[in-house]
Amino acid sequence: MRKPNGSYGAPGWLPGGHAQTIYPVLIRRPEVAFRRERIDTPDGDFIDFDWLEASETRDNAPLVVLFHGLEGNSRSHYALALMTHLRSIGWRGVVPHFRGCSGELNRRPRAYHSGDYTEVAWMLETIRGIVPDTPLFAVGVSLGGSALLNWLGREEHRAARIVAAAAAVSAPLDLTAAGIAIEQGLNRIYSRHFRSTLVPKAMAM
Questions:
Q1: Is 0.70 topped by the overall pTM?
Q2: What does the mean pLDDT of the chain come to?
Q3: What is the CA radius of gyration of the chain?
Q4: Residue 98 CA to chain centroid, in angstroms?
Q5: Which residue in 9, 118, 159, 200 has the most C-beta neighbors within 10 A?
Q6: How many Å apart are CA 49 and CA 102, to the nearest integer?
Q7: Which long-range contacts (CB under 8 A, 24 or more apart) does 12-20 make?
Q8: Residue extents of the structural domains in the chain
Q9: What is the pLDDT of residues 165-174, one digit of tens each?
Q10: 2 confidence band (pLDDT: 50, 70, 90)
């Protein structure tokens, strides 16, 4: 897959990573309708796929698969923003939920993580089977980006047969450094937020 060059420039009125992270959570989120499809996994569990509902979208329109971040879901602000844009240009979208992130605990005591590239592969192959002739694009945010990049790096030739292009947004590449950083300074805000949902899930497994 070709690796394009590019750069990102933050808006002048929203400097700094903390402001850019918190601001989208505070603004009003767009209304997006999804159709949920639950598909059983090979190990006896299930994955919930939320498909963007867009009445004016062509059946052969390109499809964007969004892998959400840690404890995210199809209602995360970035997911709603992306799906709203896709709807406006006539594209399709789907958000496959990592285990335990769709609002219901999974059947098996298996957690998701950024190294679980086999789950990413299964999700994309499942989607490809549903839409065999559709241009397919994959996007991962944060942990979802790490998992997607993991799959792309490990199974490059297989990936090239499934997706036309892929992108990762704010993906932590050095997980040890990221784990240390999130426990320092203002980053502890995010750490406490993640633990508030991760710990109850782990106790319920």
A1: yes
A2: 88
A3: 17
A4: 8
A5: 159
A6: 9
A7: 18/186
A8: 29-173, 175-205
A9: 999 998 998 8
A10: low
Q: DSSP letters of the chain?
A: -----------TTS-SHHHHHHHHHHSPPPP--EEEEEEE-TTS-EEEEEEE--TT--TTS-EEEEE--TT--TTSHHHHHHHHHHHHTT-EEEEEPPTT-SSS--SSS----TT-HHHHHHHHHHHHHHSTTS-EEEEEETHHHHHHHHHHHHSHHHHHHH-SEEEEES--S-HHHHHHHTTSGGGHHHHHHHHHHHHHHHHH-
Please state, as a whole number, how many other Cβ atoms lie within 10 Å of the Cβ of residue 147: 26
Residues 38-77 pLDDT 10s: 999 999 999 999 999 977 778 789 999 999 999 999 999 9
Instruction: Write a three-state SS string for 20-59.
Output: HHHHHHHCCCCCCCEEEEEEECCCCCEEEEEEECCCCCCC
Joined together, the tokens standing for residue 4 give 């394009």
CA 74 to chain centre: 8
Residue with tokens 């240009």: 89
CATH 3.30.1330.40 fits 29-173, yes or no: no
